[in-house]
Amino acid sequence: MANFVVHEHKARTLHWDLRLEMGYVLKSWAIPKEPPLKIGIKRLAIPTTDHPLEYINFTGVIEKGEYGAGKVEIWDTGTYKLVDQKPYKMVLDMNGKKLKGKYVLLQFKDKRGKKNWLFFKSKS
User: Fold this and answer.
1) Over the stretch 94-117, which tens digit does the pLDDT of each residue have?
2) CB 82 within 8 A of CB 89
3) Read out DSSP for 11-77?
4) 67, HSE (Cβ side, Cα atoms, 13 Å)
5) Which residue of 36, 67, 118, 123 could cross-link 41, Cys pair, CB 3.0 to 4.6 Å?
6) Per-residue pLDDT tens for 39-49?
7) C-alpha dist (Å) from residue 83 to 4, 59, 69, 87
8) Would you say 81 and 20 are in contact if contact means Cβ atoms under 8 Å apart?
9) What's the CA gap between 122 and 13, in Å, rounded?
């Protein structure tokens, strides 16, 4: 089991940051819409820079002029188990206050060839 956090981040635009403890960092994705709580809802997940593990408990305001300026609050937190991992897909068994059950991060290429991810709740 490893830890995760989802930050609600009120920066230039409201978004949610999914952060998974992997090794010695928090692997991070920005999700432009609220993370899915039900099966059938898919969300874009844009990879962002890794964050230090200490950031898992961060709440507060990042000052204007700094990277990620804006208000940051914890939207969800908990543990997860990496059930399956391939270069283009991760299956997570999440045990948070809001995110519960199997979730998938699936990599795809958009029309311009840029690699992004989808984040969604899975049936199994």
Assistant:
1) 999 999 999 999 999 877 878 899
2) no
3) SSSEEEEEEEEETTEEEEEEESSPPP-STT-EEEEEEEEEEEGGGGG--EEEPTTSTT-EEEEEEEE
4) 3
5) 36
6) 999 999 999 99
7) 15, 29, 34, 14
8) no
9) 27
* Beta pairing class for 70-86 and 60-62: antiparallel
The pair of three-digit structure tokens given for residue 64, joined into one six-digit string = 């204007």
Which pTM value belongs to this model?
Answer: 0.93
Structure-block tokens of residue 106: 């699936």
Calpha distance 86→69 (Å, rounded): 33
- The answer to whether the beta carbons of residues 33 and 43 sit under 8 Å apart is yes
> Token pair of 20, please?
């998974």
**HEC sequence for 36-47:** CCCCCCEEEEEE
